């Protein structure tokens, strides 16, 4: 069996053009109307080229993100489930597409397309997610077995991951210092956890090296920020991508579903081996990571500009910026793939000769971002990369969330980054809230006081806040 439809003689030119050699298709030159999406890309060769490979990665990543996968290259998973951990079905599936258990899309851009490819999705693009272990073959939207979710925008995702990496490193360094001091002093040490101005509770380090993490808030106890998915369960774009390619398309990444982990090169039983290589996943990561950060609407009428300016002040005064922080400072603009906090079943830095490095400082959209007095980029995400309890008995906005996802409580969600929100209606984790006013009024839990303050505003002030939020848009 072949790794992909075409052989490794296919390569990318320095200009990013796909080059196909005559021998790539036995007996004939490739057809210009070929329907397949996948093209070969060797990870180590690409990494060794350094910055010269960046545009090639981005070009192939866009092809993989927007292309509609075919069965010839591995679409479908008749003997495998959508579970994060490779899991066999109890019985092979004869169904190619199935809205609940998947496959549920032909291409990544089938769902991520509002307002452009890589963006969010309408309610029609909702998916159903499950832990996939206790109910590996679920084919129901019953909330006991799955949670309905809307499509998140990927614009600015590379900056989000870079922030999360730095914040994780900060928090872990604070933990190490507390343990070191506890051993030196022979007494417990209470350490407040805070990074980039965002508090994450506290921990207690004991002289014997043990930790009391009961006071840690908004993050897993291993102190790893996981900024992707609405529950905050994926630490990297690479983890997110490997999982999504299997769940939504039945395209299995070699690094998780290949022989090293499962004992076979065709875990899903569709007669296509090693469907996505390490290099191809890196191309997908590169394209998503370099999607520009959302910005502000330009050329607004004066009445909108005035309302938005007032609304931004009111947004802060209501307490919304306690979670939806205007910006977080970023020290490094070098994006390494794989990253330092990859999980099991995902390529790790120790698995490669050298990681692929993308220098974000080369992009014009990064150059346009504001800097602080230390020269750090201020990422205007309107978020904090922290989980919060945002529902309560009085205002349970979660509806069908009966199933926790990756052990995150059902009423706890990652703070949604609001940059670009003016381009991504409808709202809420299920995309069933049609206006910004609705989604603000749906807040409960830790956001109760801010919501009450908003509710008490007169209609003009509310509309000013809406004008401000509607001015935050995704641009190409």
From TrEMBL:
Annotated organism of origin: Roseibium suaedae
A Pfam family recorded for this sequence: DHOR
Gene Ontology molecular function: cytochrome-c peroxidase activity; electron transfer activity; heme binding; metal ion binding
Name of the protein this chain belongs to: Di-haem oxidoreductase, putative peroxidase
InterPro entries, sorted: Cyt_c-like_dom, Cyt_c-like_dom_sf, Cytochrome_c_Peroxidase/MauG, DHOR
Signal peptide: 1-21
Keyword vocabulary terms for this entry: Heme, Iron, Metal-binding, Oxidoreductase, Peroxidase, Signal
Residue ranges of the TM segments: none
The Cytochrome c domain, residue ranges: 306-473
Upper classification of the organism: Bacteria, Pseudomonadati, Pseudomonadota, Alphaproteobacteria, Hyphomicrobiales
UniProt keyword annotation of ATP-binding present: no
């Amino acid at each position: 069996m072949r790794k992909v439809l075409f052989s490794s003689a296919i390569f990318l030119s320095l200009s990013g053009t796909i080059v196909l050699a005559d021998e790539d298709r036995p007996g004939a030159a490739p057809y210009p109307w070929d329907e397949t999406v996948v093209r070969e890309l060797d990870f180590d060769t690409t990494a060794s080229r350094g910055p010269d490979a960046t545009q090639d990665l981005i070009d192939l990543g866009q092809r993989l993100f927007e292309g509609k996968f075919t069965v010839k290259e591995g679409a479908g998973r008749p003997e495998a489930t959508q579970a994060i951990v490779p899991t066999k079905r109890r019985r092979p599936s004869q169904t190619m597409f199935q809205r609940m258990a998947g496959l549920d899309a032909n291409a990544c851009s089938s769902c991520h397309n509002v307002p452009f490819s890589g963006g969010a999705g309408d309610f029609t693009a909702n998916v159903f997610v499950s832990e996939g272990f206790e109910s590996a073959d679920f084919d129901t939207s019953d909330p006991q077995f799955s949670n309905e979710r809307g499509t998140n925008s990927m614009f600015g995702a590379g900056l989000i991951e870079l922030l999360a990496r730095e914040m994780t490193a900060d928090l872990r360094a604070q933990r190490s210092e507390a343990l070191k001091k506890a051993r030196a002093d022979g007494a417990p040490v209470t350490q407040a956890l805070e990074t980039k101005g965002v508090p994450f509770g506290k921990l207690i380090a004991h002289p014997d090296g043990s930790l009391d993490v009961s006071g840690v808030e908004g993050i897993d106890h291993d102190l790893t920020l996981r900024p992707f998915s609405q529950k905050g369960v994926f630490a990297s774009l690479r983890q997110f991508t490997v999982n999504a390619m299997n769940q939504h398309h039945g395209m299995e990444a070699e690094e998780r579903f290949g022989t090293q982990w499962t004992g076979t090169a065709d875990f899903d039983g569709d007669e296509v081996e090693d469907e996505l290589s390490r290099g191809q996943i890196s191309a997908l990561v590169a394209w998503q990571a370099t999607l520009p950060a959302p910005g502000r609407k330009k050329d607004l009428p004066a009445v909108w500009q005035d309302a938005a300016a007032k609304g931004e002040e009111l947004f802060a005064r209501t307490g919304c910026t306690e979670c939806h922080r205007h910006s977080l400072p970023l020290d490094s603009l070098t994006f390494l793939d794989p990253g330092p906090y990859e999980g099991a079943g995902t390529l790790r830095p120790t698995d490669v000769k050298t990681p692929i490095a993308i220098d974000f400082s080369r992009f014009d959209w990064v150059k346009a971002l504001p800097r602080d007095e230390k020269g750090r980029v201020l990422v205007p995400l309107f978020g904090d990369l922290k989980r919060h309890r945002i529902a309560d008995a009085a205002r349970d906005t979660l509806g069908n969330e009966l199933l926790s996802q990756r052990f995150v409580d059902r009423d706890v969600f990652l703070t949604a980054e609001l940059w670009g929100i003016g381009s991504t209606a409808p709202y809420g984790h299920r995309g069933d809230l049609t206006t910004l006013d609705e989604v603000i009024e749906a807040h409960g839990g830790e956001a109760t006081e801010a919501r009450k303050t908003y509710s008490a505003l007169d209609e003009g002030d509310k509309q000013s806040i809406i004008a401000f939020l509607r001015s935050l848009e995704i641009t190409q």
